[in-house]
Amino acid sequence: MAIEISRAGPERVTALVDVLARSFADDPIVRWPFPTDGSAVEQCRELFRILDERFVHTGWLWEADDGAGVAMWVPPGAAERFVEIELETRVPIDAMTGDGGVRYRGFWDWIEAHLPPEPHWFLDHLAVAPNAGAKGLGVALGRARDRVRAPGRGPRLPGDRAARERGVLRAARVPGGRGR
Questions:
Q1: Strand order across the 168-169 sheet
Q2: For residues 58 and 89, what is the distance between their CA atoms, to the nearest angstrom?
Q3: What would the mean pLDDT of 43-66 be, rounded to a whole number?
């Protein structure tokens, strides 16, 4: 069975945020900056809503099989735009944290300080719906970056090996799968 991968539009953010929230609610890296007295799923839902409502307009957000999985790949040469948008999200995210965003900002400042200087792929997040089963959605989303060739050129698989071997990975953990 072929897995359909497509760029997500703004109308898909709510559904994709739900997949992300259910997938990352128990992830210690994602949960670390947030208070433990609230619903982890709701906190993750709000976090990814804040992020993906902004990032969806870049064309970096991908979905698999009508929302069963989601990934956000930042392409080579776009690190400055990524950081610019990430900085815009800090005020609303700071309000969600118990420390005014100190840990959240510290984490992302560290990540951004360690991005390679050369153009590279950056996987910000990847999740597969817990009920989607082992269909290869995560692998297909992991290859979504290989689909981007040039402006105006449509998706294509398989990608070149060199592109797959480059990149920086944010917490890309799928419940029931292997974390990275």
A1: 5-7, 61-64, 69-74, 122-128, 168-169
A2: 15
A3: 93
